[in-house]
Amino acid sequence: MSTYTLHTPETAPDEAKEILAGAKKTMGFVPNLYATMAQSPELLKSYKYLADSFASNSLNADERNVVWLVINYENNCHYCVPAHTGIAKSQGVSDDIINAIRDGKTIPNAKLEALAEFTRQMLNQRGVVTDEQVQALFAHGYDNTTVLDVILGLAHKTLSNYTNHVANTPVDEAFSKFAWTKPDAK
């Protein structure tokens, strides 16, 4: 398998240097995902744009983190599950919600579980969901905007999950305490 360079603001291609420097300033470190993606500045720029867009969509913090974590779980992403566990905790998401997703169990909140199930369906059915599946989501107070925001989340996490799979991106020290291995299927 090919190895990927973990770039720094100093070693990255010119078009990626500013994003890496900004991450270091904002977060105190360059996440290994960014460091890996920097090899393709267009990928890194696209990922950052989608991350910023998803962070300002119609979903609240609990809902955004449910979408992220479910996608990461379903895609078996060794890097993103720990990273988004740390992010969810920093955004005040309940451990009950986080642990249910990490453990492949039902979320103890019917509305969030409906969102999680719809996200799984969108991912596993490659966007071909039934009217009944959409209506099940809508029955919990969601709407067409939610459907589109889930699609945005899928696009965002596809870039990171796939990158982490091919690059075997090392989990950052900041998230290593949330290391994760996918439990046996439900």
Features:
186 residues; mainly alpha; AhpD-like; 9 helices
Describe the protein.
The chain is mainly alpha-helical and 186 residues long. Helices cover 62% and strands 0% of the residues. The protein has helices at residues 14-27, 32-37, 41-55, 61-74, 80-90, 95-102, 110-124, 131-138, 144-167.
Short précis:
This protein has a domain at 60-178: AhpD-like, CATH 1.20.1290. Helices cover 62% and strands 0% of the residues. It has helices at 14-27, 32-37, 41-55, 61-74, 80-90, 95-102, 110-124, 131-138, 144-167.
Helix share, percent: 55-70%
In DSSP terms, counting alpha (H) and pi (I) runs of 4 or more, how many helices? 9
**Strand coverage percent:** under 5%
The CATH class label of the domain at 60-178 is Mainly Alpha
Overall body shape: globular
CATH topology of the domain at 60-178: AhpD-like
| Gyration radius, in Å | 16 Å
Layout of secondary structure:
Elements lengths: L13 H14 L4 H6 L3 H15 L5 H14 L5 H11 L4 H8 L7 H15 L6 H8 L5 H24 L19
Helix pairs in contact: 1-3, 3-9, 4-5, 4-6, 4-7, 4-9, 7-8
